[in-house]
């Protein structure tokens, strides 16, 4: 027994005192076991968010999540591409499209996601309209990765104990620490991760968690606030390699990408966003393709884990991403995914 209590944990947070990984792991364990009340969960979530999370605290939360998660074993070096959401941009599903394109370039992608939290259409909502069945058992989720080169780990299925926090999260109606846990708690534990984070304070914290786990990751944020690499201005990237975090800046102009606009990336409902995916894979050019190729290129660079400058590595990845679109490989990947996930 750890001996921790809610008064101890909450008193520390309200006083602005950082918790240990053991304390946050205990608290999350209580939540996931159904032993915490909605009031305790809400108090913890708001107090931790207000104080500001540390790498230690996030590590403890993720450790507890993995202890309660359904296992997912996918062979080989895998990649995840996901945004935290919460950027209020209502953009099209850039990371979902980038995931399909990266898989089309020959990388095995395990996408961890959920239904929409803040956008009009989350990845799960859009993928369902594209014909992907999300309610597959864990062994089928792994088999789909082998058959199609890409699969979707539905957070609600692999982290079912999070349902105990649902009432508190819903009734609070604000983003909390829980919003940042999904991207760093992929049940397949991919060796390479490309993570968009709209919150400039949380991006380096998330990078710190990946560094401790020995994951190759890029955590990035558009300087326009987008939880993706943006084409409207520069982006900041926290690169994680060999346990070290380095902050860098990326200018899309250095990659020959024309300046985009927020309007050019704006989405609507899930049906509209699904149609955007279809048009991209069918060869439509323009601002959406520019953003997807940039983000898929970065993800492929993380997965390749090669030496060189940031710009050179992204440029090489972008070349592979563009080829996957132009050759029809990305479209073929989606077709294989739909077929594999139909049963």
From TrEMBL:
Cited InterPro entries: Anthranilate_Pribosyl_Tfrase, Glycosyl_Trfase_fam3, Glycosyl_Trfase_fam3_N_dom, Glycosyl_Trfase_fam3_N_dom_sf, Nuc_phospho_transferase
Catalysed reactions listed for this entry: N-(5-phospho-beta-D-ribosyl)anthranilate + diphosphate = 5-phospho-alpha-D-ribose 1-diphosphate + anthranilate
Residue span(s) of domain Glycosyl transferase family 3 N-terminal: 8-69
Cellular component terms per the entry's GO annotation: cytosol
Record's function text: Catalyzes the transfer of the phosphoribosyl group of 5-phosphorylribose-1-pyrophosphate (PRPP) to anthranilate to yield N-(5'-phosphoribosyl)-anthranilate (PRA).
NCBIfam families assigned to the protein according to its UniProt record, in alphabetical order: trpD
Location of the Glycosyl transferase family domain: 76-330
EC number: 2.4.2.18
Residues reported in the UniProt entry to bind 5-phospho-alpha-D-ribose 1-diphosphate: 83, 86-87, 91, 93-96, 111-119, 123
DNA repair as UniProt keyword: no
Ligand binding (anthranilate 1): 83, 114
Protein name (record): Anthranilate phosphoribosyltransferase
Associated pathway: Amino-acid biosynthesis; L-tryptophan biosynthesis; L-tryptophan from chorismate: step 2/5
GO biological process: L-tryptophan biosynthetic process
Binding-site list for Mg(2+) 1: 95, 228
GO molecular function: anthranilate phosphoribosyltransferase activity; magnesium ion binding
Superkingdom per UniProt: Bacteria
HAMAP family on file: TrpD
UniProt KW keywords: Amino-acid biosynthesis, Aromatic amino acid biosynthesis, Glycosyltransferase, Magnesium, Metal-binding, Transferase, Tryptophan biosynthesis
Residues holding Mg(2+) 2: 227-228
Cofactors demanded by this protein: Mg(2+)
Keyword DNA-binding in record: no
